[in-house]
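Morning, I've got a small favour to ask if you have a moment. It would help a lot if you went through both lines with me. I owe you a coffee for this, so here goes:
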Amino acid sequence: MNMPLLEPRPSLRQRLRRRLVDPLLGQLRQGATPSLLAFSVALGFFLSILPLPGTTTALCALCALAFRLNPVAIQAANFAAGPLQLLLLLPFIQGGQRLFGQAPLPLAPSDLRAALEAGLVAFAGRFGLALLRGALVWTLCAPLAVSLLWLLLRPLFARLARLREDAPAGPRAP
């Protein structure tokens, strides 16, 4: 009796390479400009931390269509930065409470997780106004954060484009 061998689970580095780095390098090889690619990644990264759970993928797709951004880059950045949304949800909510002169919500990360597990409708019913206040804080941070990230990523993508100009388009050897 032959037992199938279980393949080892890929490391975080391998998953990020497969889901983020390789698609972005592929876009550069296909002629995407480094500046537009950098802006797409910066916007996708920041859209992914919007404190409105369940909205970021659609929002990234809409922004890519509306502003003619690179859809692969914006969604790859959204995927890569997605876990940050949960980490930053509470600070954005509490920042919104403070901005509007409201008392801080007595929340622990475990309370947020339990509310999210109950479903998005239940979560929005319990935290709707606080989420909107947090989204306003996010909106106030967006222009500066996206601009800074774009300025940091532009030279990186320009350098990668120069390095990859002569690279073969086929898959890399492991």
